[in-house]
Inverse folding.
């Protein structure tokens, strides 16, 4: 069992006017994992990060980081936490090297030019070290934010929409950096609109909406439990009724009898097995088909489905 380094218990934030940004959130983060927090705009993701990083004062609940209650001893815990904010808020007139070195000093650490060089090189910023931040591209500015967050060598790193507004090539490079940080034992919590990134990188996924944490689970377990198989079978000749041998399957006639659509399975492979059995049953029933399109649901499908269920509740 991995060590717990962050625990939220009943975390609630109500802003003046009654907006409940966080609603009784319980969450445990384990050492060395990558945890992806998914949710639409206004779901509470940034408020949750702000509460842990000392930028937002919770209305109730407790936050324990590295064994410290943040309400009582936030300085020790905060020194081990890094934040890459969503907004590009940094001193635009500062040279890159000075800005990153200054961030290290803010946490009371002694200057370490070698470590700063390592960080800048890992982010392809070393050649830009003497340039003012304002002269950099948007992607490079975001890399500077990551460098500033890493300057004091945090054990827990928050990435709030780290690749928003970054081109595909830079996104790939930044995720390689995240993988390298995980390899050094840094625990990472990220929010992202690019769900395929969470699907690629995360060990666990949490889905938040309206300030409520709807679900937290291992990524693979979530996809196995909530995943579905969808198959469209194009028929050689239209049919008017379903063959009796297919009555036990979740399958419907579509397009005026020209195709069959199967929606079922549970993400464990049952769906693919059903589709194979359905094609065999069609052959036995004398129903010819010209093509099959099989698709497994993604993490994004699960995310959209959960939010839709909550909206309908």
């Amino acid at each position: 069992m991995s060590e717990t380094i962050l625990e939220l218990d009943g975390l609630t934030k109500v802003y003046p006017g009654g907006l409940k940004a966080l609603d009784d959130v319980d969450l445990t983060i384990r050492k060395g994992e990558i945890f992806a927090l998914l949710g639409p705009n206004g779901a509470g993701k940034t408020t949750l990060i702000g509460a842990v990083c000392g930028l937002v004062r919770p209305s109730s609940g407790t936050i324990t980081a590295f064994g410290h209650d943040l309400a009582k001893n936030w300085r020790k815990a905060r020194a081990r936490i890094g934040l890459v904010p969503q907004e590009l808020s940094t001193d635009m007139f500062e040279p890159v090297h000075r800005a990153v070195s200054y961030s290290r000093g803010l946490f009371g650490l002694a200057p370490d030019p070698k470590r700063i060089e390592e960080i800048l090189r890992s982010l392809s910023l070393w050649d830009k070290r003497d340039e003012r931040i304002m002269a950099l591209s948007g992607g490079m500015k975001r890399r500077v934010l990551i460098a500033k967050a890493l300057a004091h060598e945090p054990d827990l790193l928050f990435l709030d929409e780290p690749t928003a507004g970054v081109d595909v090539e830079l996104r790939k490079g930044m995720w390689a950096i995240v993988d390298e940080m995980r390899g050094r034992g840094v625990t990472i919590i990220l929010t992202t609109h690019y769900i395929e990134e969470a699907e690629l990188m995360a060990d666990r996924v949490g889905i938040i909406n309206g300030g409520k944490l709807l679900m937290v689970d291992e990524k693979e377990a979530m996809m196995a439990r909530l995943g579905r198989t969808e198959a469209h079978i194009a028929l050689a000749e239209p049919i008017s009724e379903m063959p009796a041998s297919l009555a036990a399957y979740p399958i419907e006639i579509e397009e005026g009898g020209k195709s069959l659509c199967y929606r079922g399975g549970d993400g464990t492979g049952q769906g693919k097995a059903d589709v194979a059995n359905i094609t065999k049953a069609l052959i036995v029933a004398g129903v010819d088909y010209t093509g099959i399109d099989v698709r497994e649901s993604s993490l994004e499908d699960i995310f959209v489905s959960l939010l839709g269920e909550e909206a309908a509740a």
